[in-house]
Amino acid sequence: MLRTLPLLLLALGFLTGCGPRLRPYTQSLQEEQQWQEEDLRRIQFYLSEDVVLQRELRSGNSRIRNGSVQVINGREVEQVVFRRNTPGVFTFSPKEQRIAISFEEDDGNFLLFGPNPKNGGRYSLLASNWDRNSGTVTYAGREWRVSSADAFASLLIPLKRIREEDTRGRVVRGRRL
């Protein structure tokens, strides 16, 4: 048992060190890198938190395509769940400081993100009509409710920081007689 513990710790450290390090996608990073739309198309985005979209179904409207149907407080509710670390791709930018990210094969199914000053400038989920408990987002051409806790769900990107210093030098070999 005592011999295997150090091996397990070493293996755990090795496995956690191999994966990509995800960093928040922020307004300052965007400004620093000056990425254009063609650059954003080559970046893999990830969600920082779970996001759950819900919409109440009307009677006779129970055909489900993207989510699951649940009964909540006697109402039929359709849900679309985006798990933490779900990968997504840039589809378009409707205006400055707004980007549409698709987490499905259909580019028409996207969520909008923009810099949130209350979240350190991170590109966070955008919704209209935020109130104390929820907000409204448009997804797949329909309006959905999203919990106010999802307001801080933001985008992450794999980012390797390279030192910006330009190091110049040489190695001295020494001098012999």
From TrEMBL:
This is Lipoprotein. The lineage of its organism: Bacteria, Pseudomonadati, Bacteroidota, Saprospiria, Saprospirales. It comes from Neolewinella marina.
